[in-house]
Write a structure and sequence with these properties.
The complex is a heterodimer of chains A (104) and B (307).
Chain A lengths: L7 H11 L5 H8 L3 H13 L3 E5 L2 H6 L6 E5 L1 H13 L3 H4 L9
Antiparallel strand pairs in A: 1-2
Chain B lengths: L2 H12 L9 H15 L7 H17 L9 H28 L3 H23 L2 H29 L13 E2 L2 E2 H35 L4 H24 L10 E6 L11 E5 L5 E6 L10 E5 L6 E3 L2
Antiparallel strand pairs in B: 1-2, 3-4, 4-5, 5-6, 6-7
Helix pairs in contact in B: 2-3, 2-4, 5-7, 6-8, 7-8
Classes of the chains: A mainly alpha (104), B alpha+beta (307).
Keywords (chain B): Membrane, Transmembrane, Transmembrane helix
InterPro entries (chain A): Metal_resp_DNA-bind_regulator, Tscrpt_reg_PadR_N, WH-like_DNA-bd_sf, WH_DNA-bd_sf
Protein name (chain A): PadR family transcriptional regulator
């Protein structure tokens, strides 16, 4: 997926990931996008190598008494795509606020 | 706690959005949809998918201070739709990846294009009677006469080795060789049909304007499409695994080209299911006239040269 083909929704998801939001619900919450957009987009981005994912350590999740989550992060290609998307949609930075605290 | 974090937390509190746990209706609907949606995902990813969604649903129930669940049923419906869309996307993508490059996918795509071109022609002709009559006339009085020498020319000047398969093992009720030949002939037939329908559809507006004079455009177009189509069909056949008929992948360059006379150099393509490799020499010579298919035997690790 080249940066030229990125839709606005995908650009928002990439921006959210670049700001440290790591999992589906967090991204849904911060971007306001519905789950029907966020999750398939994350799968597609992962398939295309813009995003990689890994499971949270069980011990860490157990400590917080919740199930382990699957965390997503940008790859090198994803970071380049995110920068191109930010240039293409300059208002993205205002739409997606920086992550300040930890989500429960 | 950093001053920045406390500022953020107070900001969230100031939003006057209540910390609303997911209500019973939402949990109920999502809980019921989850096992159905899971069936859409590919079997090997199902457990992981369920685990991820359970974690996400937990988060919706216990976290999420900014999300306002004003209409629980609507929120549940949206979430359930998201779940289904996610599962369906995974299932569809897996099915597509499984079919991509296969012989059946190739034949289906060619057949679909034939139908599209024939449909266009039918639309422009206006009635089935005219459509069949025009097709018959142009096929018998033009296409056959052009196609026959063009088929011969493209087969005779085929740059790769004469199409053949030496595989004798059985896959299903046909041997590898029979399946390979069947696919080749089906592909050639569909390619020729597509060439015919595409030319007819492309020249239809011209035929309506200038009548039989359009044949002067149609005939060379037939010759070009038959030659190019057949060349593609033969090259495509060469670049397929002889066992599973899937397109070969991972092209890798081997050997330095400057040592061409001393050592083998060229390109290697491999079957993604591990059935074998195709060696394409950089420079053809008496030691290697054609591309070489090297089959990997499944039982033993021996590599047998069959071409």
């Amino acid at each position: 997926m080249s940066s030229g083909k990125l839709s606005h929704s995908v650009a928002m998801i990439l921006k959210a990931l670049s700001l440290g939001y790591q999992f589906g619900f967090e991204i849904m919450e911060v971007t306001g996008l519905p789950s029907g957009t966020v999750y398939p987009a994350l799968r597609r981005l992962e398939r295309d190598g813009l995003v990689s994912s890994q499971w949270e350590a069980e011990a860490e999740a157990f400590e917080e008494q919740r199930p382990a989550r699957r965390y997503y992060e940008l790859t090198k290609v994803g970071k380049e795509a995110e920068m191109a998307a930010t240039q293409r949609y300059p208002l993205l930075a205002r739409l997606v606020p920086e992550k300040l605290g930890k989500t429960l | 706690m950093s001053p920045r974090k406390s500022e953020a937390e107070s900001e969230i509190e100031d939003l006057d959005v209540p910390v609303v746990a997911l209500r019973q209706e939402v949990r109920g609907i999502c809980g019921r949809v989850l096992p159905f949606a899971a069936r859409l995902t590919p079997a090997q990813r199902r457990n992981e998918w369920l685990r991820e969604w359970r974690a996400e649903l937990w988060c919706l129930q216990h976290g999420g201070r900014r999300v306002r669940w004003d209409h629980d049923v609507m929120s549940a419906a949206s979430l359930a739709y998201g779940m289904m869309a996610d599962a369906a996307w995974l299932g569809f993508d897996a099915a597509l990846a499984k079919r991509r490059g296969t012989a059946s996918a190739c034949l289906w795509v060619l057949a679909a294009w034939c139908l599209v071109c024939a449909g266009l022609e039918r639309m422009m002709m206006g009635s089935w009677t005219v459509f069949w009559s025009v097709l018959e006339t142009h096929f018998l009085n033009g296409y056959i006469f052009i196609a026959a020498p063009a088929i011969f020319a493209s087969a005779a000047t085929n740059p790769v080795r004469p199409p053949r398969c030496e595989g004798t093992h059985r896959r299903g009720w046909l041997t590898t060789k029979a399946r390979w030949n069947l696919f080749l002939w089906a592909k050639v037939a569909l390619t020729l049909a597509l060439g015919f329908f595409a030319c007819m559809a492309a020249t239809a507006p011209l035929r309506m304007e200038i009548g039989r004079w359009a044949d002067w455009v149609e005939m060379p177009l037939f010759a070009v499409t038959v030659t190019a189509g057949l060349r593609w069909a033969l090259l495509n056949q060469e670049q397929r695994c002889q066992t599973c008929l899937r397109m070969l992948k991972q092209p890798t360059r081997l050997g330095p080209p400057s040592y061409n006379f001393l050592e083998w150099s060229g390109m290697e393509l491999a079957c993604s299911d591990g059935h074998g490799q195709l060696h394409v020499p950089e420079m053809r010579g008496s030691w290697c006239w054609y591309d070489l298919w090297v089959e990997r035997e499944s039982g033993s690790e021996t590599v047998e040269r069959i071409a």
